[in-house]
Amino acid sequence: MEDNHHEYTQLEKNRLEKAARLREQGIEPYPHRVQRSHTSQAAIQAFEALENDEGAEAVQATLVGRIRSMRPMGKLVFAHIEDGAGRIQLFIRANDVGKEQLDLFKSEFDLGDFVEASGEVFRTRTGEISLRVNEFRILAKAITPLPAAKDEVTEEGEVVRHASLTDPETRYRQRYADLAINEEVREIFRVRAGVSRALRDFMDDRGFLEVETPILQPIYGGAAAKPFVTHHNQLKQELYLRISFELYLKRLLVGGYERVYEIGRDFRNEGVDRTHNPEFTQIEFYWAYADYNDVMRLTEEMVRYVAEQVTGGTTIEYQGNQIDLSKDWQRIELKEGLIELASIDIDEYPDAESLAAAMRAKDMKVDPKAPRGKLIDTLIGEFVEPTLIQPSFLYNYPRDISPLAKNLPGDSATVERFEGFMAGFELCNAFTELNDPIEQELRFQEMGRAYTDEDEERHPMDEDYLRAMRYGMPPNGGFGMGVDRLTMLFTDKANIREVILFPHLRSRED
RNA sequence: GGGCGCGUAGCUCAAUGGUAGAGCAGUGGCCUUUUAAGCCAUUGGUUGAAGGUUCGAGUCCUUCCGCGCUCACCA
Protein footprint on strand B: which nucleotides are under 7 Å from a CB? Predict the structure, then answer.
């Protein structure tokens, strides 16, 4: 690896020289203290409020922000600065600041610099509310030019972006630059924050207690996924980054809480694609004395509530599809859905061999080692999932892929589990939780047999979880949902990386 | 991991195997109500990396790196 010394480009050298020249003039390019009286939008609103009031005094303001555009015109400079609230135009005139100051601004200030400017708010001849600057100061000199974007505001008020940063690799690796110039990217993460807040409000309002459970776990579980492995030096112990919260949250029901939830990060050491990131955010809740029917109804309410909070409505457009969240979700029994869409009645194929044969008859590639449940899941992915554009619950899943779910009464091969879908992808997963410790131990053993010892997805036996359950666990319904995917729906993004601030990319020496 | 595609200036993109270019940004000028400001001039490149074919490679071949789409995988 080469040394980490940054090789400055000519553009950067220019700006370093500008910073040096400012210092020579006794101007600190990175001062400690800042004055600010208004945000850009507050100044504009204050002006608008008093504009038609003849007797009102002019609005004096000290504003701060980053220079996003500059139009020098001889003895006058127009510039836009951008702060957290928006943009406002600066009007800097030799008459107001003096020729020396104007020249200083024109020669040493660049796009991307943070500045402070004071003056009176007014409206220019063309009607734009602006700050007539009589004093300004640099707050932070930018050395690297932002990957320049020029915005054109049409007469309809539409913003047309010219030559912005669009290369996805650079956008993700240098998210700070992406955010700095692409306002709509900043908006994505405001929506994301709104989704988290709405989820918390929803759960809190219904008496669910927000808790935090271990991320570093001696035994991973609650899902079938490969974990990340790490090591505690002093304890000389292997630890896993959690793949789900489930087993810890249900221990809390044993402890006496009736309703708990957690929003946090899961880690799965698996493939990366447009709906999978190695770390992702989940919400899980466990609800004592509820079953999966109750959980379905709560899910409908929850997603509708989040939509209302985040978008103001109950209809969303996702990748060209209108999705209606105002109504109850479609309920499709898994078996019926497969008969209808795959023309396969799974009851006629009670074992993996016969089902695999039926699938091969449909020209499907079939993993010869796959257990029956996994084959059924393949059928769902192939025939059912892509058709579920409107919100839908697929319910009653095969027992052998659901070791933590309770049997359907009178049906030992099926469990009370559902998955929620919309826009053609899986959004959530829930079941009536298994709370019989003897049955649970049996299920763990079955899972152990379903996978070979080397298989990293093999379900490890969690003895402590069984011990907890033996103390008595109330009947309960549990639920998990990907917050990233939910955010994708509300931001109309097809790639999970668009809704993760710093998505994982392969390391690169650059 | 497989298939397909992409990688050229700070950004967005051109360039039949034949002198690497444009717009924006930058730099130097002109310009006191502009807003993709305008006008004149001008700097800027190890064409992702390394090999190879060729008189000659951004272009063709091989390998590698990275990204995208897709398939597989992911209860």
Answer: 1, 10-13, 23-28, 30-38, 43-44, 65-75
Do A189 and A137 share a structural domain?
no
Chain centroid to CA A216: how far?
A: 22
A212 & A272 share domain:
yes
Query: Using an 8 Å Cβ cutoff, are A410 and A401 in contact?
Result: no
**Beta carbon of A151 within 7 Å of strand B?**
yes
State the CATH number of the domain containing residue A445. 3.30.930.10
A425 touches strand B (CB under 7 A): no
Q: Are residues A127 and A191 in the same domain?
A: no
Check if residue A125 sits with its Cβ under 7 angstroms from strand B.
yes
Question: How many CA atoms, within 13 angstroms, populate the side-chain half-sphere of residue A374?
Answer: 13
Does the CB of A180 sit below 7 A from strand B?
no
**DSSP classification of residue A347:** G
Domain count, chain A: 2
ipTM of the complex: 0.91
Residue-range definition of the domain harbouring residue A99 = 10-145
Q: What is the per-residue pLDDT across A476-509, written as a single tens digit (0 to 9) for each?
A: 999 999 999 999 999 999 999 999 999 988 876 5
Residue A353 lies in a domain: no
Alpha-carbon distance of A288 to A353, in angstroms, equals 38
